[in-house]
């Protein structure tokens, strides 16, 4: 497939903090059985599924997955298991299906990971396109049942892409539109608000092998709530109401903490200050960056990116078309212990530089690329904002998003979490439990679609509760504070 891929690494990378002058504390909302739907996430393997970015073709650069998350679900009757890329920039659910040529899934490397859904084998699948069985077009839409753990939702809208078509992945959109999966859960009475939070479990302290397949460091996603045991301190929250549906946060620069033991310091002009423990600052006036959950790469203004490169002893050369490719360095340099601090609002988040190193090829041949790049100023690629925070950054953060208030909150992941503490995101503003930020005084809460039946919920502990009422198309489901094993 020679086309540009649209995304292969999700989850989102939201990086933010609240202005200190505007901070306000939010009371925690705890119930014995909060109305949330929880599931485990997992990272895609580097082989045979390389993480690609917008300018990469499928046969080109193969980057290791350091930020993307996938959700295992079942679709149809009987259920067919597929993996879906969690996409906060989209609002639909798209799955691969065999198509007219009935291409073997195992022959397409993305299909081999994501799996495929064959509507011909589902008795509950329906479509307005009457001829789909005969023509099996490259793309068409339909309805079917989606099972998330023990929660089963019927008549879910699906877009079906042929395995050998231009779209090479399957995804589940959780963006801010009433057609996304988050809103469908509200409509069906399974959660109270169109909201979610997600995280990646801490990576164990060890030397990172950037050339090997990443450990499947699992994470979790909670629709309608947060798990306060998974992060440290308050959630730093920012409004993205002015930029919706794009999530943005105010960024004011980075600091680079260089490893004093790095061999290249012998030839670095700043070696004396680095050896004294002084970070290299690359700051600018606070400006909004968009949060890009589709791509691993982050983009910073040219002067800032060049300062990062210089501090870490790497270079980037502009091509004839104005594009700056990612710098390339020997993967062996991953043994150096550098840290990059991202300054967002009044918060600062430390991330090891190895998070941004990815093999140039698979196998790597010893070369790695550095996934902080310079945007194309002429074409406003990859976004009209001055910078982009890619999904790699969020691998080290806990993120919570509420679409009623259009607020996004971030905190550092707790390296030693205790027992789960599930808190429901309520309907009264301010809504993110335990967050600090400049929340709107009033919120127009999303009104669920008309409901007609009651949904019984049950956890693995055996308790049962009635969750308000649910729209047609909800089957008895497990909800509440229980993590579904989907990996």
From TrEMBL:
Pfam families: Asp
Signal peptide: 1-24
Residue span(s) of domain Peptidase A1: 69-411
Keywords: Hydrolase, Signal
Source taxon at top rank: Eukaryota
SUPFAM superfamilies per record: Acid proteases (SSF50630)
Membrane-spanning ranges: none
InterPro entries in UniProt: Aspartic_peptidase_A1 (IPR001461), Pepsin-like_dom (IPR034164), PEPTIDASE_A1 (IPR033121), Peptidase_aspartic_dom_sf (IPR021109)
The keyword Electron transport is annotated on this UniProt entry: no
Entry similarity comment: Belongs to the peptidase A1 family.
Protein's UniProt name: Aspartic peptidase domain-containing protein
Top-level taxonomy: Eukaryota, Fungi, Dikarya, Ascomycota, Pezizomycotina
